[in-house]
Write a structure and sequence with these properties.
There is one protein chain. By secondary structure, the protein is of the alpha/beta class. The protein folds into 2 domains: 174 residues, Rossmann fold; 166 residues, 3-Layer(aba) Sandwich (Rossmann fold), CATH 3.40.50. The protein is 37% helix and 16% strand. Strand 8, helix 6 and strand 9 form a beta-alpha-beta unit. Helix 6 packs across helix 11 and helix 9 packs across helix 12.
């Protein structure tokens, strides 16, 4: 098949630092090309891909430009020129690209990477019968089941990039990795590490105003003296931390559609201690690859779970990722979606 992958225009593919969507796009574009499809990736010029790369912006502006309307519209207009050369067009940004793409007459697939805010519900309702939607978890699909779904496809990771470390090879720290937005739970991670008396390493993206305010006013005052604080880190640094940590704290308080850090941690044999929000119960096998504890009592229950890490077999963590969340499983899932969309016309 001739497939267009339209990535967001703010971060390179793959990302140099933070960028979950961009990692998914990178693996999918490469994986489809490896399986013999004719793939064109619309991203920024500093992207790297096995697909054909086309771009209007030579350099990614970075995460502070996320959702910039001018960048989005310009990228969309460029990407959808000559769209008739493709059998299917896969849109990864929900704004102007999706709105414009459904008018092209080509089969349009859109992955729901984000949350169903009221604004997104209104937008999706207007194109709900004109695009093929892909949910990245069953929990996400349940929030708006009336859309036309091509299927549920879990985000995948490139397993060879994540080395397995057994329990005796781990270092004595726990890891929080993510944005500083309140719903991501950085403060709960700090409180849990304090309650457990364990050293915390934090790799945190602080970019937008609400993140800056929460980080400065709520999180930093609670941080313990032995905490290591890092900013945005490279893939190599992230993998090193994920593999060495004895556990990853994932204390979200929102219906996150997926959460790549959970599968990345488990691939390294690292248990995840998370809350039962969004896709968490689909990703983590409670008591086998980590522990699921309540948001309201996260600090004390996560601290108790850290005393039970010997119950978790790192090999079981990796096996779950191999079975459900690999790059290969994701690519195969999207192939089925594209075939369905093309057959329907």
């Amino acid at each position: 098949m001739r497939i267009a992958q339209v990535a967001p225009p703010w971060v390179a593919v793959p990302p140099k630092g933070y960028g979950g969507i961009e990692w998914v796009v990178a693996l999918l574009a490469d994986g489809l090309a490896e399986r013999g499809h004719d793939v064109t990736l619309f991203a920024t010029g500093d992207s790297e891909t096995k697909a054909h790369l086309e771009y209007v912006f030579e350099t990614a502006p970075g995460s502070k430009a996320i959702n910039d309307i001018t960048l989005d519209a310009t990228h969309t207009l460029y990407s959808l020129r000559g769209v008739d050369r493709f059998d299917a067009v896969h849109i990864h940004t929900p704004f102007s690209a999706l709105a414009a793409a459904v008018t092209t007459g080509r089969p349009i697939v859109h992955t729901l990477h984000g949350a169903f805010s009221p604004e997104m519900r209104q937008l999706y309702a207007l194109v709900g019968d004109r695009a093929w939607f892909v949910a990245i978890s069953e929990a996400q699909r349940d929030h708006m089941p009336e859309l036309r779904y091509g299927g549920v496809v879990y985000n995948g990771i490139d397993l060879p990039a994540y080395p397995l470390r057994l329990r005796e090879e781990k270092d004595d720290f726990v890891l929080f990795l993510g944005r500083a937005a309140p719903e991501k739970g950085a403060l709960r991670a700090v409180q849990a590490a304090k309650a457990a008396g364990v050293r915390l390493v934090m790799a945190v993206k602080v970019a937008h105003e609400i993140e800056e305010e929460h980080w400065a006013n709520d999180v930093l005052p609670a941080v313990q003296p032995d905490t290591t604080i890092l900013g945005e880190i490279s893939l190599e640094e992230k993998v090193d931390l994920l593999s060495r940590a004895k556990a990853v704290l994932f204390p979200i308080d929102w219906d996150e559609p997926f959460g790549l850090v959970m599968t990345e941690a488990m691939a390294c044999g690292t248990p995840v201690i998370a809350t039962p929000r969004g896709s968490v119960p689909e990703v983590i096998a409670d008591g086998e690859t980590g522990f699921v504890v309540p948001v309201e009592r996260y600090a004390e229950e996560a601290a108790a779970a850290l005393q039970r890490l010997a119950e978790i077999d790192p090999r079981a963590c990796r096996a779950r990722v191999e079975e459900r969340f690999s790059k290969e499983a994701m690519v195969a899932g999207y192939e089925r979606v594209f075939e369905r969309a093309v057959e329907a016309g």
